[in-house]
Specification:
Layout: H1 4-20, H2 25-44, H3 52-98
Length: 99
């Protein structure tokens, strides 16, 4: 089971089997959601010196910045792929016209 396709399919089977046996999805993912929230709180206030409201406000901004960075990276990747595809298509057209 060393090829990537086999591993991917086996992982999908395992994931779907696991979720099929899960009655409370929210409870199952609560620890992950809590850990993500704690990550942003620790990022903005590692020594826990801010009052909880201010920490939560700043953590919200840190979370928004994180997802905005992801969106920016995705946009840049899509833009680069689009440009590369356009260049490839132009090269193919040039080749076809020269034949």
């Amino acid at each position: 089971m060393s090829d990537p396709t086999t591993r991917k399919l086996a992982a999908q089977v395992a994931a779907h089997t696991s979720w099929a046996g899960t009655s409370d999805r929210a409870a199952r993912t609560a620890a992950a959601r809590d850990a993500l929230a704690a990550r942003f709180e620790t990022e903005v206030d590692p020594h826990k010196v801010l009052d909880p409201e201010e920490r939560a406000r700043r953590a919200g901004h840190a979370r928004s910045a994180y997802y905005a960075r992801l969106a920016l990276k995705r946009h840049q990747a899509v833009r680069d792929i689009t440009r590369a595809t356009e260049a490839l298509n132009a090269a193919d057209t040039e080749i076809q016209e020269s034949i």
